[in-house]
Every structure is written in C-alpha cells, then in structure tokens.
TrEMBL record:
<dbReference type="Pfam" id="PF13524">
    <property type="entry name" value="Glyco_trans_1_2"/>
</dbReference>
<dbReference type="InterPro" id="IPR055259">
    <property type="entry name" value="YkvP/CgeB_Glyco_trans-like"/>
</dbReference>
<feature type="domain" description="Spore protein YkvP/CgeB glycosyl transferase-like">
    <location>
        <begin position="195"/>
        <end position="334"/>
    </location>
</feature>
<protein>
    <recommendedName>
        <fullName>Spore protein YkvP/CgeB glycosyl transferase-like domain-containing protein</fullName>
    </recommendedName>
</protein>
Length: 349
C-alpha cells in the first residue's frame, strides 16, 4: 500500500517508530515532517500552536495535497496532526484516499490543553480514528467520527530490547528510577520516597523537573532527557523502573510500561485495568495504588534482586509474545483500513 505519513518525525518521537513499522511491513511510505512547519519566531510559533492559524498551517495543508497529487497514496496517516483542515481531508477522501488519525493524547480529557481548535473540527472528516482509551471510543463516536479503533501504545522492537547478557545489580547504578515528565503529583511522590531514604533517580526534560523539584533538583535529577539507546540503557541500569499513569489524559496504560518490560526491566507500575489486563500482577509486573503501597513495594523489592530478576524476565516474555510491539499494533490498524476501503468500494459498485 502507498501511504502518506504526516507526523512529527524527529528520531526521538514515537511517530518515527510507527513510520518504521509501516516500512518494515512492506508498504511504500512517503513522509511529511510537521516539525519543519514551525514558525521561527517564538511569539508567532506560540500563536500558531494555540490558535492553529497562520502561514505554516496553510503551507502544511497545501503540501499534504500536493504530495497526495504527486505520490498518489491509498492512505494518509496523520499522527497527532493538529493542523489538518476539514477541507483538506474532504479533498483527500474525494480522491479515494483513506484518512486515518492516530492520536495518543486525549482531546476530550480534563487537562484541556490548548491547540485543539482545528483538530476538533476534523473529527467527522477522518475515515478512522485510533485511540488508546475506551472512554475516547465513545467520545469520538459522540463527536461524529465515522469509525474508531482502540489501539495500544507499544514498544519499538528495534530500539527496546533486553541486554545481552542481562544486567545484574552489580551493573545497575540507578535505584528507584523514573524517566519522563512531572505530570500530576509525580514530583511530590518521588520527593517523599527520597525523604524516606530511598535511592530515587529522575531523568527527563529539565524544563519539567527544575521547578517541581526545587532545592532537590541537583540531588535527584541526573542524565538529562534520555532517548533511544540512552533510554534503553537507563532501564537496564535501574533496579526498579517506575511507570505512572497520566491522570489528566485518563490513561489506562502508558508507553513506558511496555518499553520497560520489553527491555527486560523490573516494572513497578501504577495499578489500572489496562495494566492488569496486560501483565499478571506480581508475576510479570508489580503494581501499586497510592503512595503507601508504592513505598511498601519499593521497600519489598529493592533488596530482593532475585525476585526482581524473575519478574522482569516474565514481563519480558509477556511483552514480546503478546503483541505489545509497534508492528502488531500497526498491523491491526491497517486491517481496519482495508475493511474500510473494501466497504467503500462495495458502496461505489
């Protein structure tokens, strides 16, 4: 299948992993990188983001249609594209092109981030919406979506895999490790663990942590923002890998949990139906609800290397045998796209 893939495509974005999965599956993929459509002036860039208006918005939509004319794709995959216009989607559909929106963030959630103005208008115009939440399946349908599929965030098998030979505590220099952002009350939680004498290590974008950690920033934060090989190796070097849900996004599960498991890391994740459906508790991963249980689980498993290694190995096997990878999730979406295309052809006949 010829696929026009529109997304933010830096090497550190998960959208690049999904594009690579399409290529691995044998599809002919042409890509438009939305990063190149950001205004250079910071004030104009902020205005374009918040209002979804401006010359870069127009240029992106023009270039999507121009590339569709040149490349003649059968499908356009828009991966978290906030600047697509309804008229652009209508023009693509008029050419027989199936349009797909892959959105891991939650437009309908309580966080109410800015930048969604155009996206909200496009919901009825896409052929298929891909979302990771049951609650969003209903929300999209209520907003007029033509079709919705629930998918799962996934690990990238070319980038997230176990160490060979596996790390032991002799090589692990990160104790209770969290890699990510400071959403919700994560900073307060991690500072409480530190105050109780537990060896907390935090990595991620410094802009997320400098303010929330305050005077403990230099104590708890290290190694900066970790991507690709550095991210994988930090998981290997961690005795306990923490994974929090983003409650403002109404998450059922998160990328990080599958990535940690796929790397062979010991996963201590926030308990949820989504996590519990995908890992056997205390056999393939360990879960917690609330601070007290988190602290208790950290104290239980931190000194027990054998238990951590056993659970991490079982979690690794579960992740690699159960379709928690990008290739499997992309395949599910393409199967639904094929159903849509066959149905459209039948109606046209």
């Amino acid at each position: 299948m010829r696929i026009l893939y529109v997304a933010q495509l830096s090497p550190n974005d998960t959208a690049e992993y999904r594009r690579a999965a399409l290529v691995r599956a044998g599809h002919d993929v042409s890509a438009i990188d939305t990063i190149s459509y950001r205004a250079k002036h910071p004030l104009l860039r902020k205005l374009e983001f918040r209002a979804s208006i401006g010359p870069d918005v127009s240029r992106l939509n023009h270039d999507i249609l121009a590339e569709a004319e040149r490349f003649q794709p059968e499908m356009v995959w828009a991966d978290k594209v906030l600047w697509m216009r309804p008229a652009t989607l209508d023009a693509l559909r008029a050419r027989g092109i199936t349009t797909v929106s892959y959105m891991i963030d939650n437009y309908f959630g309580p966080r109410r981030d800015p930048g969604w103005r155009l996206y909200a208008k496009t919901i009825p115009h896409y052929d298929l919406h891909c979302t990771q939440r049951d609650v969003n399946v209903v929300s999209y349908r209520d907003a007029g979506a033509r079709d919705v599929i629930k998918i799962q965030t996934a690990y990238e098998p070319t980038m997230q895999f176990p160490a060979d030979p596996p790390y032991t505590d002799a090589r692990r220099d990160r104790g209770v490790s969290f890699i990510g952002t400071s959403y919700d009350d994560r900073a307060q939680t991690l500072m409480r663990l530190h105050a109780e004498g537990l060896p907390v290590v935090i990595s991620g974008g410094p802009q997320h942590w400098r303010g929330p950690l305050g005077g403990l920033y230099d104590t708890l934060y290290r190694e900066g923002e970790l991507f690709r090989e550095r991210y994988r190796e930090a998981i290997w070097r961690s005795q306990i890998n923490l994974s929090f849900l983003t409650h403002g996004n109404q998450d059922e599960f998160v990328h990080k949990s599958f990535e940690i498991a796929a790397c062979g890391g010991f996963l201590l994740a926030e308990r949820s139906p989504g996590h519990s459906e995908r890992f056997v508790e205390d056999e393939e991963a360990v879960f917690f609800t609330g601070y007290d249980e988190l602290a208790a689980k950290v104290r239980k498993y931190l000194p027990d290397e054998a238990a951590r290694n056993r659970i991490a190995l079982a979690g690794l096997r579960r992740a690699w045998s159960s379709g928690y990878d990008n290739d499997t999730q992309v395949k599910r979406i393409l199967e639904r796209v094929q159903t849509i295309r066959v149905g459209r052809q039948g109606r046209a006949a």
